[in-house]
Amino acid sequence: MSDPVFPRLALIGIGLIGASIALAACRSGAAGHVAIHSRTAKTLERAEELGLGDSYHADPADAVKDADCVILCIPVGASGTATEAIARHLKPGSTISDVGSVKASVIAQMALHLPADVHLVPAHPVAGTEYSGPDAGFAALFDNRWCILTPPPEADPAAVARLVDFWSRLGANVETMTAEHHDLVLAITSHVPHLIAYNIVGTAADLETVTQSEVMKFSAGGFRDFTRIAASDPTMWRDIFLNNREAVLEMLGRFSEDLTALQRLIRYGEGDKLYDLFARTREIRRGIIAAGQAIEAADLDRPHGKDDDEAG
Amino acid sequence: MSDPVFPRLALIGIGLIGASIALAACRSGAAGHVAIHSRTAKTLERAEELGLGDSYHADPADAVKDADCVILCIPVGASGTATEAIARHLKPGSTISDVGSVKASVIAQMALHLPADVHLVPAHPVAGTEYSGPDAGFAALFDNRWCILTPPPEADPAAVARLVDFWSRLGANVETMTAEHHDLVLAITSHVPHLIAYNIVGTAADLETVTQSEVMKFSAGGFRDFTRIAASDPTMWRDIFLNNREAVLEMLGRFSEDLTALQRLIRYGEGDKLYDLFARTREIRRGIIAAGQAIEAADLDRPHGKDDDEAG
Fold this sequence. Notes:
Radius of gyration of chain A: 21 Å
Structural class of chain A: alpha/beta
Distance between the termini of chain A: 51 Å
Helix content of chain A: 40-55%
Oligomer: homodimer
Strand order of the largest sheet of chain A: 3-2-1-4-5-6
């Protein structure tokens, strides 16, 4: 095992992502000492029971002391407050990063409090599950997943290179882009999909013509996938929508416009145009499979090993 | 193995569902002789190569001759034409059924042509994959899935009981409801979810600010699930939307109304209300898991065995 990228790593927040970083850093030796803080006493205690790190700190200032890298692993709406609490205690020359699904807003919140001698290199590992809390973490979460870094133009190249190295050793493929572009890309690949999943599950729950028990029973027809997405952490997702408002509203506007056009095709029975759209979207799935982000055989719960919930 | 429910079964159409019925009927002994028709010579040939049945017929009239049960396994828009082609050749006292994802329209199309001495018992197995064609079929497709029967009020109870028996032996759990109620239930649990999956994949493909390659690369954030749904058979789905128009438009109207309200919450930063919705939808996922239609550990492509594509 090669030397740790960061002899001392501090994790502020120890939910699904924080716990997975701790486990993956331990597995790979990418960090030496791992110091953990959670503002919730019970969570911190649980992290210690699980043996996720090397030291556990109720005070975030203690956790970040002498750390070569500090990573905020908290809902994006808490970035400013958390940074303020640790800013004065950060080691000169150290790196501070995060794992937020929104970047421009998080950078603005954090930069406000940071001293000039600390390197801010924001990151977003595009990985997760619908589970939350320290028990949900696992070392393989980032394997072969993308981690997007959004360093500001003035970022120190050496600090960026160290964080690239760190995430690579955690198993991720690293990509760099601007914060603004990240927020647009994620709005369409993640935020709007989550929003419409939350929305349809809510619509179904409110129906008076179809019972909730029927919705649950016959969910294998497609709805089931949406419920899984709509089971993700409510606080995290509230913060994402509030902090990536412009990009989400822009993509949502396009989605709604397209949906209205599609609705009209159905109303007027335009079969050929429906067919053309459905054939086109099939090609995109093929592209994703080719890009290696999805595999064809994927379900443990079916003997055939094929995805099984696409029926009408 | 007990006696076959149907000594002679005819399958009109041998795509994913037809082929799976053939294989499941063979596995369970629920049918004796299985006669297969496809209007596409190549598909019929492939079915024979795969050994899916006992006889293969280019003429549907030959396939249904002496059959105790005939099942249409074709896109719902073709139900009328297919029924017309076989109606005069059906055995008196035999059962005719289908597997369509829409019921009221299919019943109307079929009933028009059927002689009075044949029992019409429509069925919809809520199972499938995003693959199509005879090669996609597998015997376990219906195991522990729901099959919904929608017999008309005047249907012969003995004929209905035989079809319940048949589908049970194919592995399915059978439920009975009216065609109209079926169409409403499926509109929300399947048709609208498919429509919005098709729609967002289309929206993403048309963006000029985010490249298709970026959409594909970062699809693990949630979009990936939608592409799988949007890869389903275009002809089948075109027909579903055209034939369940009223229920789909009704459910889609509610979905859009709710989405507009959600969009407004984001625009005005109403965090508490967003949180409440997201917490509520999480409960529905728990209900579905409890109902046994989804399991918590479901992905072969992740060592941890957890769903893995929920990240922001």
